[in-house]
């Protein structure tokens, strides 16, 4: 057998050769002439080449991260891009190709025709070392190899954070790879605990889909929606680093017209505005703007009166009302009809001279902008009452009523207003941009109106929905995924698949946070943590007056050690903490302004969703719990943001498990987790869907030989839950 040194030298030779050819390919891309049949094609070619060049690894980046050896004796190197030599021989294959996929998927149970999987450790393009998995040897010894974190993954997880998410191409795990490659034509719900890689998987899935469905999907056809600007900023470099530059990435608040945002609103009003019955209210209110004509409509053209009988005008209005299409389009239809009626009576043929028709049209079918219309509607109790119909109680309509700013340009809108404006935009103009695939991250919190805004942008019904029910908080805290998927297009199958291994949060921290789960989300499966952290969580219970000073001191210590730090601070303590940071001369970035670049970041628990830091300082858990009706979930979010260090600084309990009074002094009611009633009328189709979901879970979660075992255990769990006697011979829960 070759010595390791000799093998390393041989690998280095291959890496050097591949790098030489990568640079040759880069040069060729730069030099290729822009000549094309026409200017448009030339521009597209130039853009394509720019995209290809950007996607190429930098000269100092390793050409490959892995190698697979097949039983057929063929060997492939796997990297971020395919590299050819000048004879078109492949030196490295792209991770997104079927061959590249084998690198992630081969396991001891199912080696997929491989004899060996090699993972390289590199510094630049210098091969320092490699680890081998030799499948035949391992097959007998390891039952579930794919679940064990390997050295390469652990080293990657321990790397310091910077405020920008990185790609995980070299270390994608088998279970993650299955979700990345799941079929395009479905609504795939990726669920899992904090730090299981849901966001990373969803972004790599986009890249994989773009590569493997080039015929149907261009980068411009894909939209990624995140919960807030700091999150979008955090993830925005992942797709470009995978070579996919033109994918649109927006915050949920950007799905709507550009208006001034920032209006605060109480949760009850937020809840009303988020409900899908608001769509009906808006549609009725808009139709109510359409007027009725006078018995006779008299118009003056070039000194001559023309009179249209009211019944004819009313018929034209009725026809436009019944037509399909958005308000503005139907208005055009009415305009054309009125012009015809005028011409039939000898009016001017020239549309330029139809000013009086425009006036009549404006009176009957006024032009509207979404913000002007909604401001007017909120401002009128009578219009709200008329549009509310039986769907809204009087006190709900009273809550919606508000006096608008003096000028439209001064109106400040709330987050819950944005999807209403977007709904109106669609009713008025119907020109929302459509996408062929949409990814929605942190989807567990979105209101039905926000989900409608997502759904209307989907031209195919193909979506990837990402979230964690245990982190679902706010006015729309959810306990079941159906509460989300019911508002999405129903054209394709819905499959919920889970990620179970926690890569971010160290064991000591997760154990603390998981104490909240029995109250926060008793139905949610716990994460299996893959690694230990460097230290137990720091618990600092201090006098209230000392709290902010202690936070500043801890932040300073973490910063001195070169860590990327997040302070998760409830609103009630925000001013105190800001003051202490100022006084200690510690500049920080504000997540509420989409910033996340400095070493020190101040985030609210809500903004903390999806983010991660080397060190996290959580301020006053009791206040965090009091901040939301599902406050224990919010605290769970706050405690699970760290990749290494956690400190909790408080005057109250480190881990308040009992309900804590909210800001008004009331004990918030925890909404009961609703177990679905056994319903004998459940339709076969939904049972089929449930069975399909379960089958998908089993397929994705266990190797084939274990399926029977899993099903037997599932049956035992169900028996236990239902209190039914367990038939003899069935497996017991371990
Ligand atoms: N296979 C992997 N290789 C290397 N790093 C990984 C892998 N999977 C996940 N990670 C890392 O683990 C961390 C958590 O991943 P991610 O943010 O995608 O988790 P999440 O499930 O979306 O978490 P949350 O629910 O808190 O938003 C990230 O730093 C990510 O890069």
Characteristics:
734 residues, alpha/beta, 6-stranded parallel sheet, 28 helices, globular, disordered C terminus, binds adenosine-5'-triphosphate, ATP-binding, ATP binding, UvrD-like_helicase_C
Describe the structure concisely for a colleague.
By secondary structure, this protein is α/β, with parallel strands linked by helices. The chain contains 28 helices and 24 strands. The chain has a six-stranded mixed beta sheet with strand order 3-4-2-1-5-6, with helices on both faces. A six-stranded parallel beta sheet has the order 9-8-14-15-7-16. A six-stranded parallel beta sheet has the order 19-24-23-20-22-21.
Distance between the termini: 44 Å
How much of the polypeptide forms β-strand, as a percent range?
15-25%
Report the average pLDDT across residues. 86
| Largest sheet report | 6 strands, mixed
Helix run count: 28
Share of helix, binned: 40-55%
Which regions contain 5 or more consecutive residues with pLDDT less than 50?
Answer: 140-146, 667-685, 728-734
Tell me the number of strands.
Answer: 24
Give the radius of gyration.
30 Å
What overall geometry do the principal axes of the alpha carbons give?
globular
Query: By helix and strand content, what is the structural category?
Result: alpha/beta
The set of bound ligands, ions and cofactors reads: adenosine-5'-triphosphate
Arrangement of strands in the largest sheet: 3-4-2-1-5-6
